[in-house]
Write a structure and sequence with these properties.
- By secondary structure, this protein is α+β, with helices and mostly antiparallel strands.
- Strands 1, 2, 3, 4, 5, 6, 7, 8, 9 and 10 form a 10-stranded mixed β-sheet that branches. A 4-stranded antiparallel β-sheet has the order 12-13-11-14.
- Helix 11 packs antiparallel against helix 19 and helix 19 runs parallel beside helix 22.
- It starts with 6 loop residues before the first helix and ends with a helix.
């Protein structure tokens, strides 16, 4: 017993379960798209922050030298400064035979908290009798020196508690880093290292500090700040606005498609309701209530799907990277999920309003007579038809069907355009990111580099002799000779320290060289590059999957709601084969024209994003030919696949039952 028009909403949803599920899928895809993009961006930001800290070896935001007590107090008692520490450099102390030295570095506990990213093994010093050094300096400090052992330097005894990763500049200059703890610093000694509060206005804080000291006394970690506060950079902010706008528009279109198709299908039902006294407002309420019910069901499911997608990505990191568990990509931000839910709910209600308004204006007589969607076309006179090659009957009928229902054509084409634009736009962003200087800087170098002293009287014969000696070393697999250095590839990278010692014995005693071990630095950069690539490719995969499901969903619904029409064609003599061809041709027409328009708008958007990103990345824009080709071919394949399942169902339909179906 139905006591209210509002109950018709739940009745319809339950009775037409398959169509309800398809509409739910559309909304789930929409909320999953928004929340996944949000979580991906947040996770990418966190991952990028960790990458920059590892590559640079420190995490402070700014450093101030030549400071006075007033400036130190302003940093110390500034609520916008989260933490600060003091660090200074001491003298350079020769070690070993005197050719190698170490630079003393002193830091208090707060400053040491900015430096653990330089650790390769062990821990940072906790008192004045502990030290951490570059691992390549161990043989020069003391033979067989390991973590936990004691050694002497500059008439003082230290316990080795940590190893710093090998950096190219220290090895080339043969001046290693020596880090120990220091409690008391004189005013003006060394440098203040500070970290700005994340909730503070970074631009305002930096401007304030710049006004207190000279520019040459200030070092700003701009690379880290850009990632921490993307909104502080207009170019990055513009890219984010464009990306979010594309996603929101895609969401609105997907949801609108689902409800518009549902309303068009049920015009006769709404006409019957109007004929028995239902008002326009009541018809609108029926549609809006359906939208609200579907949104309440679909939004939590979509959020769970996005969380699962990010969790899967985290597990991929754990498998691919040796220290993948340390990559903090998986981060559930409840604000992102809440905002995604609000955006989706608003999009559902806004997208369903026009179909609801359209349903309320349906004329009862035209709807009941099924003439509402019939549009009389102007008669066109064709000349010279004999000279034109006739199309096959299924193709001709497919073209007429596409032209006959402009509303359905627009809805389906929009879905394909949106999916194509999403793929091309994000693929272009991927190309821009990979072409950036940052990615080029991350590209792995050679394992070892052997540099000849620049003031050394170089000769071809000597370089040839050095090359032969290097090739004779057991662990070396390849030697590339350049003007003043050699690039070495190792067979077993884990034996790099032993190989360096071997080269020192065989070559270093005869020729003036310096050896740079890139193994540790390459590992950090390789992991950073891999993280970025996995993030980008995973994001493109998610976007492609959601876009493909959107096309499948839209075309499948558009075919299912025409069962009665297709049954009528079969009843007047159209063969099953011709019917199948006609539907496939229709789908391919949708895919063809939708992908072409999507490619056009996608290229325009990718160029706009390039212009926005040009303030951050110095790259050249090119037409994304590869993405365009993939989009075109994929749209045709997905459009073809989307009709196969409805066709199987239509083949099994009983013509009389379908035609008599109300």
């Amino acid at each position: 017993m139905i006591s209210s028009y509002k109950q018709l909403s739940s009745k319809y949803l339950k009775r037409n379960m398959k169509r309800t599920i398809l509409t739910l899928i559309g909304i789930i895809l929409s909320v999953a798209l928004i929340s996944t993009v949000g979580l991906f961006m947040k996770g990418s930001q966190l991952s990028q922050i960790e990458n920059i800290k590892k590559v640079n070896g420190f995490s402070f935001h700014l450093g101030i030298s030549n400071y006075d007590e007033a400036l130190l107090n302003k940093i110390k008692y500034n609520p916008q400064i989260a933490s600060y520490g003091l660090m200074s450099q001491g003298g350079i102390v020769p070690i070993g035979d005197g050719e190698v030295s170490v630079q003393k570095n002193f830091a208090d506990h707060s400053a040491l908290e900015f430096l653990p990213y330089s650790l390769a093994d062990g821990r940072l010093p906790a008192n004045e009798h502990e030290a951490a050094v570059d691992s390549w300096t161990l043989p020069y400090l003391k033979k067989g020196l390991q973590i936990g052992d004691s050694f002497e330097l500059d008439s003082q005894t230290y316990q080795l508690v940590g190893l710093l990763d090998n950096r190219a500049f220290t090895q080339k200059d043969k001046v290693g880093r020596f880090l120990t703890y220091k409690h008391d610093f004189a005013i003006g000694e060394g440098r203040i290292l500070a970290e700005i509060n994340e909730k503070a206005d970074f631009k305002e804080v930096l401007e304030e500090i710049k006004s207190l000291t000279k520019d040459e006394n200030l070092v700003i970690n701009e690379e880290l700040i850009k990632v921490l506060k993307p909104g502080s950079n207009q170019s990055i902010l513009a890219v984010l606005v464009i990306v979010v706008s594309i996603v929101v528009i895609a969401t609105v279109v997907v949801i609108y498609n689902a409800f518009q198709i549902s309303v068009v299908e049920r015009m006769k039902q709404f006409g019957l309701l109007r004929s028995i006294g239902a008002t326009r407002k009541q018809i609108r309420q029926i549609v809006m209530r359906e939208a609200a019910v579907l949104a309440v069901i679909a939004i939590p499911v979509g959020l769970v799907c996005s969380i699962v997608a990010v969790a899967v990505l985290q597990s991929i990191f754990s498998i691919i990277l040796e220290d993948g568990a340390g990559v903090s990509f998986f981060h559930i931000d409840w604000w992102i999920l809440f905002i995604s839910s609000i955006i989706t709910l608003t999009a559902v209600l806004a997208s369903s309003y026009y179909p609801a308004f359209f349903a309320g204006r349906i004329s009862p007589l035209l709807a009941i007579s099924s003439r509402l969607s019939i549009k009389k076309e102007a008669i066109k006179k064709h000349k010279n038809n004999v000279l034109k090659k006739p199309l096959s009957f299924p193709m001709s009928l497919a073209l007429k069907n596409v032209k006959r229902n402009k509303n359905r054509y627009t809805i389906t084409i929009l879905s394909i355009i949106i999916s194509s634009v999403l793929f091309i736009t994000f693929s272009s962003m991927m190309d821009i990111a990979f072409a950036s200087k940052y990615m080029k800087d991350l590209s792995s170098k050679t394992d070892l580099s052997i540099y000849l002293k620049q003031d050394h009287d170089d000769s071809t014969a000597e370089r040839q002799q050095i090359s032969e000696l290097l090739k004779s070393v057991e662990n070396i697999s390849g030697v590339k000779e350049h003007d003043l250095h050699f690039e070495i590839e190792l067979k077993d990278k884990t034996q790099s320290l032993a190989t360096v010692a071997h080269i020192e014995d065989s070559v270093g005693k005869k020729h003036a060289i310096s050896i740079v071990n890139h193994i540790d630095e390459n590992k950090v950069k390789k992991d950073s590059e891999l993280v970025i690539k996995v993030l980008v490719y995973s994001f493109i995969t998610v976007i492609s999957l959601i876009g493909s499901l959107n096309i499948l969903n839209t075309i499948t619904i558009s075919i299912i709601i025409r069962r009665k029409e297709l049954a009528a064609l079969k009843s007047i003599g159209m063969s099953q084969r011709d019917l199948k061809k006609m539907i496939i041709y229709e789908a391919l027409i949708y895919g063809f024209f939708g992908s072409l328009q999507g490619i056009f708008f996608g290229c325009i958007l990718s160029y706009i994003i390039y212009l926005a990103a040009s303030g951050v990345l110095r790259v050249e824009w090119t037409i994304p030919y590869e993405a365009c080709l993939i989009t075109f071919v994929s749209a045709l394949i997905i459009s073809f696949l989307s009709v196969l399942l409805p066709l199987r169902k239509i083949q099994k339909d009983n013509l009389i039952d379908v035609i008599r179906e109300q």
